[in-house]
Design goal:
The complex is a heterodimer.
Chain A: H1 9-30, H2 36-45, H3 52-71, H4 84-100, H5 105-114, H6 118-141
Chain B: H1 2-21, H2 26-33, H3 42-64, H4 84-100, H5 104-112, H6 116-143, H7 149-153
Classes of the chains: A mainly alpha, B mainly alpha.
Chain lengths: 146, 157
């Protein structure tokens, strides 16, 4: 039977608009694309005068989680079963994949599609498809726990 | 100084947005792709909400602004071609996203929230990001030419 138990249309749209506002702010003030994987990757390239703002953006993300979780810890709940090995493999593939594909959900999915970029649209469709295949395999054939 | 403060505030707002949107709960990411279980379309609404705000600001800024407020020029992606790296990299990223339920933004902010799963995922992710960047940089230095034209030309995001 078709179910949609945990759908949150209102808060998800509002949260999305905040994300869009943050990305727009980074563009207007810094002239940069708010792509988290691109921001993180640039730290390792160590170009002159290009590291501090990247680190500070990530520190901002970290601080938001630290502060917000004091009031709304349930927003960070992990209600899926993943072994340490699965998490490590997932982290490595996300790290390498986003650098090779030069973007993630924020850089390609929000900013790229928002700029009507063909590259980012193709990238987003691609990672959506492989994510869907992975989830279907895990949930339907591996019992939902890996 | 103000550049650092601005980037910090941008990251903070981004992180709060992710939490309100529900994107820091891996179950909601997995739920978006779980068409045969209890489907959760929330992720699409997050992206839609973000693009709804971002696109008009972006189009207005690139048409009418000479430069950003705190930078000498806009640093925007210039590439238009669809190449193998883009497809292969995105495909690999999608597998990890579907497996762990985190993409880079939610991972960083959930580490701040003290999530052990996010910490393990995030540490592995940073190893992947760092290894890729250090490896490409070393190859550039050896050959004397950019091995990864993409990263030099400006990443998409």
């Amino acid at each position: 039977m078709f179910r949609m138990d945990s759908f949150t249309p209102v808060t998800s749209t509002l949260g999305g608009m905040l994300i869009g506002t943050a990305a727009a702010g980074l563009l207007l003030f810094h002239g940069r694309i708010a792509g988290v994987s691109g921001i993180a990757g640039g730290i390792f390239r160590r170009e002159p005068n290009d590291v501090a703002w990247r680190v500070m953006f990530l520190v901002g993300l970290f601080t938001a989680g630290m502060a917000w979780s004091q009031f709304f810890p349930q927003d960070y709940a992990v209600d899926i079963v993943r072994s340490p090995l699965a998490l490590i493999i997932a982290g490595l593939t996300v790290g390498i994949g986003t650098q090779l594909g030069s973007g993630c959900t924020s850089g390609h999915g929000v900013c790229g599609i928002g700029r009507f970029s063909k590259r980012s649209t193709v990238a987003t469709i691609t990672f959506m498809i492989t994510a869907a295949i992975t989830v279907v395999i895990v949930n339907e054939f591996l019992g939902g726990a890996v | 100084m103000k550049i650092k403060v601005g980037a910090f505030l941008g990251g903070t707002l981004f992180g709060v947005g992710l939490a309100i949107a529900g994107m820091t709960q891996p179950a909601k990411i997995i739920g978006f792709f779980d068409f045969f279980g209890s489907w959760d379309p929330s992720l699409a609404f997050v992206m839609l909400g973000a693009i709804l705000v971002y696109t008009p600001v972006y189009r207005w800024a690139i048409r009418t602004w000479q430069r950003p407020i705190w930078a000498p020029a806009f640093s925007l992606p210039t590439r238009k071609d669809i190449d193998g790296r883009l497809i292969l990299g995105s495909a690999i990223f999608g597998v990890g996203w579907g497996l762990g339920g985190y993409c880079p933004g939610p991972a960083f902010t959930s580490v701040g929230a003290g999530s052990e799963q996010a910490l393990l995922f995030g540490a592995a992710m940073l190893v992947g990001v760092g290894a890729y960047q250090v490896f490409t940089r070393a190859r550039e230095n050896r050959t004397g030419a950019p091995a990864d034209q993409q990263a030099v030309a400006m990443t998409d995001g």
